Amino acid sequence: MEPIYGKNNKEELPLEYYLKRYQEGDPAEMARRCALPWNAETNTLELEFLGGTYTVSHPDFTITGPTPLSNPERILFLRYLLDGAYAMPSGEYLTYREFPWGEVYLQQFTGRCIKRFAFSYGFKPDLLRQVMERMGARPISQSDQGWEITLMRGLTIRFLLWLGDDEFPPNAQILFSDNFHSAFTAEDMANIGDIVMNRMKKAQM
Question: Tell me: the pLDDT tens digits for 10-34?
Fold first, then answer.
């Protein structure tokens, strides 16, 4: 998938743009392409997102689920339904820059996501553990403290943290299952990093 919008996508293509495309689209085709359950009687799709199941109606795009969605999360749903596709993961995980167009947004992703993650939790491993457990993430052995979280069905993200000390600052990496390239653009993935980090912040409360 190639990016279809510029760096200031929130201004250039607001939620209303995607809503119009969604309303004009075929929900059964969206369901087939994204491998989602589709109920023709109720005109609804089911979409798993960060551990919850959400029902999305067509054409009005009413979403019901365990928690209210932010506008960036609603846009992410639309981006997947309109332009994404489900693909089986191979088991390989890639850095952001290894994805198509990743180099274009690498600096943005590094600042907004990787550095934010490192300096939010690099000296607070207990807080990170509490947050990830609340979000249903699974611990993994990579790094000082690693976690794997499912964004949507088949799409997983690994958050890797190397703790800081008196001599060295904390360091981090975020890896994506290799099938993300079928589902989202590089800019979508930068937004996904923001979305998950915002969910992590809410989980601290």
Answer: 544 678 899 999 999 999 999 999 9
Tell me the C-alpha distance between 65 and 53, whole Å: 6
> If you classify domain 93-203 with CATH, what class do you get?
alpha beta
Tell me the pTM.
0.91
What's the rounded Cα separation, in Å, for the pair 159 and 32? 30
Q: Are 122 and 169 in contact (CB under 8 A)?
A: yes
Per domain, the residue ranges of the chain are 9-83, 93-203
Gap between the Cα atoms of 106 and 26, Å rounded: 34
**Are 70 and 160 spatial neighbours (Cβ–Cβ below 8 Å)?**
no
Q: What is the mean pLDDT of residues 138-155?
A: 97
Cα distance between residue 160 and residue 173, in whole Å: 5
